[in-house]
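Renewal narrative, Specific Aim 1. Our central claim is that a sequence can be written position by position from structural information alone. The example that follows is taken directly from our test logs and has not been curated for this report. It begins with the structure tokens describing the chain, in the order in which they were read.
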């Protein structure tokens, strides 16, 4: 039973093609037999991972960034095969969550010597997300980044550029949020983040206490801040200290329903999943991974 590598050569600003030759060299050096599929278009990885059982593979490894991880996870969820990742993308937050190194040699070694564990997954309106979901200001930033060439040109720094652009035009919204049995109505809301992992946007700790195997989702709400206030608070998201800010609410639960007035964008691990409303549920121990 050979592992199947699903490679997105376009991930990491197109550098994955070069990185894959390195990875292949390391696999051959360690005498690891494998099968490989190169994606030819967006979302193809979902279909390939769905057919993993036909390939008779014990492991399915995504070679790419968080978008590729998301597609493979959505195809693989509910199957026996174990999921792994070799990070070659721009943000690589999933690999960061599992402590998988960027260096291809050490990432391959980790795949070979790593142990298996089960991790939780978020489900948003029927789709699975391994890392974190952003609603509102952050969804608008992700939408802008995916449309512009900034991510390709500037990598993770493209997030900051899109943030500065969206900050000028974004208007806070009214949030109606149900978390398990509790209901909240929050005016002048900027964003809601729901995290399975603490990392997102290339290393930002938006939900700093989120753990990917505790059966809980973490919710972070930013509200009632001026544009200058957002700018001042932004750097603290890299350390996770933003949760101490008086205009940040931080909670934990199992199921979140979000409605907003007006509708705002939702992203999951950087990919746009439409607009609000959104229903988010945590699925404890839903995916077998090597870490
Ligand atoms: N052959 C292809 N041609 C064009 N796009 C593709 C192809 N295969 C996959 N994709 C798309 O490439 C997009 C970007 O891939 P991915 O997210 O893995 O890399 P990244 O954006 O560099 O990394 P990260 O998400 O970690 O910042 C995904 O949304 C995926 O659907």
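The sequence written for that structure reads:
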């Amino acid at each position: 039973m050979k592992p199947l590598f699903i490679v997105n050569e376009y991930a990491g600003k197109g550098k994955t093609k070069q990185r894959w030759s390195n990875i292949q060299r390391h696999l051959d050096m360690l005498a690891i037999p494998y099968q490989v599929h190169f994606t030819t278009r967006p979302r193809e990885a979902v279909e390939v991972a769905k057919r993993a059982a036909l390939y008779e593979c014990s492991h399915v490894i995504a070679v790419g960034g968080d978008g590729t991880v998301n597609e493979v996870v959505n195809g693989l969820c509910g199957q026996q095969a174990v999921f792994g990742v070799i990070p070659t993308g721009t943000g690589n937050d999933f690999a960061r969550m599992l402590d998988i190194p960027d260096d291809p040699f050490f990432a391959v070694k980790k795949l070979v010597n790593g142990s298996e564990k089960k991790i939780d997954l978020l489900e948003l309106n029927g789709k699975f997300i391994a890392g974190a979901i952003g609603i509102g200001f952050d969804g608008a930033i992700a939408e802008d980044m995916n449309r512009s060439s900034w991510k390709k040109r500037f990598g993770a720094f493209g997030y900051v550029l899109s943030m500065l652009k969206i900050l000028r035009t974004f208007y806070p919204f009214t949030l109606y949020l149900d978390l398990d049995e509790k209901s909240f109505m929050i005016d002048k809301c900027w964003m809601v983040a729901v995290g399975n992992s603490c990392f997102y946007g290339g290393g930002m700790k938006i939900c700093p206490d989120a753990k990917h195997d505790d059966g809980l989702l973490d919710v972070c709400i930013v509200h009632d801040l001026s544009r200058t206030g957002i700018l001042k608070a932004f750097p603290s998201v890299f350390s996770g200290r933003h949760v101490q800010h008086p205009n940040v609410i931080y909670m934990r639960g199992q199921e979140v329903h979000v409605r907003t007035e007006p509708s705002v964008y939702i992203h999951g691990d950087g990919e746009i999943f439409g607009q609000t409303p959104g229903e988010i549920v945590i699925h404890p121990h839903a995916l077998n991974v090597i870490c």
